[in-house]
Sequence to fold (171 residues):
Amino acid sequence: MNMNEGDDLTGVEISYYFICKTKLWLFHHNIQLEREHENVKIGKQIHEDRYPRVKKEVGIRNKMKLDFVEKRDQLYIHEVKKSNKMEKSHLFQMYFYLDYLQDHGVDVKGELHYPELNKKKEVELDEEKRKELNKVKEEIQEIVSDEMPELEKKRICKKCAYQEFCFAAEG
Ligand code: SF4
Fold:
């Protein structure tokens, strides 16, 4: 994959790839219901309670919304998450951010924070991870350029902002 392929993707889509392909497809096609959902509000509240003094939500074009950015020996970008149940999606979202920034000449590392678990994890991007990320980007392009994936009920549907959209007919 060259540097421009997958350039229209966002960090949110990378994370949805690991959560639900339908959610990824809906979001990519501008059917976006996440902003007002209760779980999103809870996530924002955790961030505000735990990190009141840091500058919040640094947006870079429409590709990424970083929870906060910090300069130590080098630049660090931070993401604050409610739980680590979806750690793979968090990791690849962070790889995506690091890849984008490094491709634009920024020397950067990442850190994932799980304040509810008192846990944090430093994230670096190496060649192996970059290859895996490129494969994910290719698969996302295939999914979003096809028809909407067939609906498949999962445990996470109960807490998903799209639940009513996906399963309204079932009452
Ligand atoms: S409700 Fe379920 S199937 Fe629909 S987008 Fe959410 S997780 Fe995916």
Residues 11-170 form a domain with the Lambda Exonuclease; Chain A fold (CATH 3.90.320).
